Amino acid sequence: MLDWQQALQQQPELAHAQTVLNEVPLGALQLSGGLTNRTWKIATKTHGWTVWRGHTSISAAFDICRVNERNVLQAVQTLLPTSQVLGDNAHGVLLSWLEGRPISCAELSAERVISLLAHIHTFSGDSIDGDTIGIRRFDYTEKVDHYWQQLNPSIYKSRYQELYVKLRIPPTFHCNHSALCHFDFAHHNLIHTDQSIGVIDWEYSAIADPRLDLVLTLDMLDMDYPQGLNCYLQAYGLSDSNAVIDREQWLSDMKAWSAHAQMMALLWYVLAAQLWGNDDFLIDAESIYQRLCRSDHCL
Fold it and tell me: Is position 228 within any domain?
């Protein structure tokens, strides 16, 4: 851990966190996890370990809004263990550190991960007045257009342009559902706490179609959609006995989302490669592209 003055020299923007704390921190260290930002963990006398999540050029490029993240965290406090909002200002949000340990794929089944996601989705769009509490409503086309517009001209942008144009408009669906969606839900954002399993990193969260969130999670878990949907519906029914979901319509809509979800992820990886100067992300992007082409989705 760096002492506070050393941390400020390395990252002057941390002074904004000190303003929120209203005390001089004991020190800080940069967390290695997290691909969107390099988050700082700050030691304090009053709150113990805290986490500063700042407004940066990187977060802006990924279309991350810290105000939205703050509002989501405040809304889900009673739903499951997660970080507490300690304060915020125009430069970022300060969160409590969620004590616990990371969860590996070996110790938590994919079925359990899906059941946790279903529990989050019981916080339905109908029950949330997102405009009042300041939680974003997700717009797929706006999101992928934003990613595309952030990309500098390159051979990679040219390579993926036809795919982007083809898939930038979402498909037509059988059902119209909305819920609070995490949009980065898998083992890497789950923590074993003293209470149960906690969920972190809500920065991409929005009120959106839960089937898109489910598709993104199933893709990360490498689980087929029919099996994943069965697990999801079983867990969802246990959480909300009044839920009425048409399995076949949901499965059809999940399949309709699939290529669009993968294209959105592809653009995210290309943007990450550009922002961090790390070509390893391009390997992931190209893998998605080849998978879509094998499925006859490329031109």
Answer: yes
Please state whether the predicted TM-score (pTM) of the whole model is above 0.85. yes
Structural domain of residue 279, as residue ranges?
Answer: 102-294
Indicate the DSSP class of residue 137: B
Task: Kindly list the strands in the beta sheet with 197-199, ordered across the sheet, starting from the edge strand earlier in the chain.
Answer: 101-102, 190-192, 197-199
Distance CA 53, CA 119 (A): 26
- Look-up of token digits 């059988």: 174
Residue 299 placed within a domain: no
Low-confidence ranges of the chain (pLDDT < 70): 33-38, 124-132, 238-243, 296-299
Give pLDDT, residue 78. 86
Beta strand extents in 13-119 (DSSP E only): 27-30, 40-44, 48-54, 85-89, 92-96, 101-102
Indicate the length of the chain as a whole number: 299
Which pLDDT belongs to residue 242?
Answer: 64
CB 209 within 8 A of CB 216: no
Q: Mark whether 260 and 116 lie in a shared domain.
A: yes
Residue 50 in contact with residue 18, Cβ under 8 Å?
no
Give the pLDDT score at 175: 86
Contact 182/213 with Cβ under 8 angstroms? yes
User: Which pLDDT does position 244 carry in this prediction?
Assistant: 74
Q: What is the CATH number of the domain that holds 249?
A: 3.90.1200.10
Domain of residue 10, CATH code: 3.30.200
Residue with tokens 């209203």: 22
As given in the structure block, the two tokens for residue 255 are 């399949």
The per-residue pLDDT for 183 is 98
Other beta carbons within 10 angstroms of residue 37's beta carbon come to 19
* CA distances for 82 relative to 74, 75, 85, 278, angstroms: 10, 11, 10, 30
Q: What's the rounded Cα separation, in Å, for the pair 143 and 155?
A: 22
pLDDT for the residue 237: 77
